[in-house]
Predict the structure.
Amino acid sequence: MEWLREELRELEKKGLYRELLPLSTSQGKRIVVNGRKLLNFSSNDYLGLAKKHSRECFKRWGAGSGASRLVCGNFEAHERLEKKLAELKKTESSLLFSSGYMANVGVISILAKEGDLILSDELNHASLIDGCRLSKARKIVYPHCDTETLELILSKERKKHRRCFIVTDTVFSMDGDVAPLGELFKLKDEYDAVLILDDAHGTGVIGWSSLDLFKLKPDERTVIVGTLGKALGTFGAFICGTETLRKYLINRCRTFIFTTALPPAIACQTLKNIEKVPEKMEKLQKNISFFRELTKINSQSAIFPLLIKTPEEAVKLSQKLYQNGFFVPAIRPPTVKQSRLRITVTSEHTEQEMELLWNNIKTCQAR
Ligand SMILES: *Cc1c(COP(=O)(O)O)cnc(C)c1O
């Protein structure tokens, strides 16, 4: 097993070695890492809901689910949450999954089959990429948000394939920019394609759905994946679409069938968190505007990328900020091409705290 050590040494040399950091507090804007108190600008807990817990949910349902949904792990709490999520995303129905990773891998690989075509944005989340890899369809990666090139590909290639799928993040997880959903919707219609949207960072941030920003309504060829582990503050994921899609996934989707159901207490807690979303989302929107003005980093979401030349410099800046009491990890290749600090703001941050962080970053960079 010496090659493992060699490969790790290589990573270290390139400044790409990763390590885990243990938190001794619950998730929130103030965390303690290795005994050090830090102001957190890195979590996807955009609405500060992760630390919420209701005794009621855990008392009623316990912590475990005990089986897959199709065996005896399907609880009323799941179905209640699914109805609510479908309503919020304006679709006929929805189906819960144990994680967003599993939802994406499962839905793409089961919908797109041999003889089909998948068109995928080059900056899509790893779980979408892995879903494409697992599918037997032909895959073409198009340049980031470039709908002109996408149309060119469609006009040339669409006819040669039976079915076509356009796959994209709505809010890109490392850049915070929003996909051109209006254009993508048109292309979907023009070329008789299915649009698969990963709304992990849009749900509860941009609105209940990123489609709301474009005044678009999902139709029967729109599939929306959402996660519960980000703005909604719990864990798990869901796929929204038609009632037929739900039935198909229950019968065919391997990452739904062959895994233990989401604990019903988590479904119950998610429903409770959803009640708090509108008020928190308003606060988050205010903070996003404030931080955008302050930093001039152009982002419509809660994710603000601060690009840094090299992985080593990104790590150094992150470490300096850590010393100064801020938690903003460096994101490096292979997660992204260009190293960066990925700053996330939440509804819980104050303007003062955001200014404090930005002044600190500027001072560190000047040195
Ligand atoms: C986090 C994330 C996922 C994965 O969701 P999990 O529930 O954490 O597995 C999928 N897609 C995007 C864009 C994400 O940011």
Q: What stands out?
A: The two ends are 42 Å apart (CA to CA). The longest strand covers residues 164-169. The chain has twelve helices and 13 strands. Residues 91 and 237 are 16 Å apart (CA to CA).
